[in-house]
Design brief:
The protein has 313 residues and is of the alpha/beta class. It has two domains: 201 residues, Rossmann fold; 92 residues, UDP-galactose 4-epimerase, domain 1, CATH 3.90.25. The chain is built from nine helices and 13 strands. The strands form four sheets. It has a seven-stranded parallel sheet with strand order 3-2-1-4-5-6-11, sandwiched between helices. Strands 7-10 form a two-stranded parallel ribbon. The protein has a two-stranded parallel sheet with strand order 8-13. Helix 3 links the parallel strand 4 and strand 5. It is globular. The two termini are 26 Å apart. Bound molecules: nicotinamide-adenine-dinucleotide.
């Protein structure tokens, strides 16, 4: 299989690339390195079945040229920061929706019909549900990032309906692990390196979410892709448990061997406007197909803290 991976130099994308190469596939990474890192794919650069293209998805002409000759697209490139939309309101419109349109349009020109997409739990918005299944609706995101993901899902679905594409859309929980460059774990570690006595925690610390280890995430993506053959394959990708932000802070302090760290909460139920403070994803659909996360949410967080602290690549 010849796979085109947008965002393949990023955190999750680079792990996916490792798996694809390991399984003998030919891979092209298309990434502008805006939040990715060439170091994450360094070990593949000399390989014959690997190509790296440093370019932007907003350059439609270039995407059309480079996508030719592939069998499948794994589309992971996006702005990864949920918070940024508050300051830059067209960011997710461009990096989420226009970039996805460019991928789909380039695929249409090259008669490539299969697309795997990294969506997010944030498309569900803030709900009263204890556990969200893929059939939950209406999906009303509360962040511009979430709107970008939902818009991208809509476009992909429309290309399936209009041009006979086939898709695997995954709504990820929070993904953590080696090569992690953003998110609550990285944030706490950086803050505690600067000041080991005090840690500022956004919100009241009771935010509670599922954390999925990155290798489980990649296994889930490839498992669903191999075992589900509907035209539209939509899956939540998550473990069954959740972790609070305060628990993450405690685990980071433990792993950094810091005692008596004082936690300073900024207050309020959410970390920032657009943050969904509590949710759980129902992963039964993909569980029934035969995939299950190997690590619980707490185990994933603990392992990811160690990865980030020891700069595991
Ligand atoms: P990441 O920032 O590490 O990866 C995104 C990659 O896309 C980066 O390498 C970046 O350089 C590249 N990129 C961004 N805009 C681009 C553009 N216009 N053209 C070309 N390349 C571009 O983030 P990640 O955490 O690995 O996330 C990967 C995907 O998974 C994203 O779509 C993200 O929204 C989604 N996702 C991530 C999480 C999570 O917890 N990490 C949760 C849900 C969904």
């Amino acid at each position: 299989m010849k796979a085109f991976v947008s965002g393949g130099a990023g955190f999750i994308g680079s792990h996916l690339v490792d798996s694809l190469i390991e399984n003998g596939h030919t891979v092209t990474v298309y990434d502008n390195l805006s939040s990715g890192d060439k170091q994450f794919i360094q070990h593949h650069l000399h390989q014959e079945n690997f190509t790296f293209i440093k370019a932007d998805l907003l350059d439609l002409k270039r995407v059309k040229k480079e996508i030719q000759g592939h069998d499948i697209v794994f589309h992971l490139a996006a702005n990864p920061h949920v918070r940024l939309g508050e300051k830059q309101t067209d960011l997710d419109l461009n990096q989420g929706i226009v970039a996805t349109y460019n991928i789909l349009e380039a695929m249409r020109h090259s008669s490539i019909k299969k697309i795997v997409f990294s969506s997010s739990s944030v498309v569900y918005g803030e709900t009263q549900e204890s556990s969200l299944s893929e059939t939950y609706g209406p999906t009303l995101p509360i962040s511009l990032y979430g709107a970008g993901k939902l818009g991208a899902e809509g476009l992909i679905s429309a290309f399936c309906g209009t041009f006979d594409f086939q898709t695997w859309i995954y709504r990820f929980a929070n993904v953590v692990g080696a090569r992690g460059t953003h998110g609550v774990i990285v944030d706490f570690i950086e803050k505690l390196k600067k000041n080991p006595k005090e840690l500022e925690i956004l919100g009241d610390g009771k935010q509670c979410k599922p954390y999925l280890y990155v290798s489980d995430c990649v296994d889930g993506i490839l498992f669903g892709f191999t075992h589900a053959q509907e035209k539209m394959n939509l899956f939540n990708l998550s473990c069954d448990t959740t972790t609070t932000v305060t628990r993450i802070a405690e685990m980071v302090a433990e792993e950094m061997k810091l005692k008596n760290v004082s936690f300073k909460y900024t207050g309020g139920i959410r970390g920032w406007k657009g943050d969904v403070p509590r949710f759980q994803l129902d992963a039964q659909k993909i569980n029934t197909l035969g995939w299950k996360a190997t690590l619980t949410s707490d185990e994933a967080v603990r392992k990811a803290i160690r990865d980030v602290l020891h700069a595991n690549l």
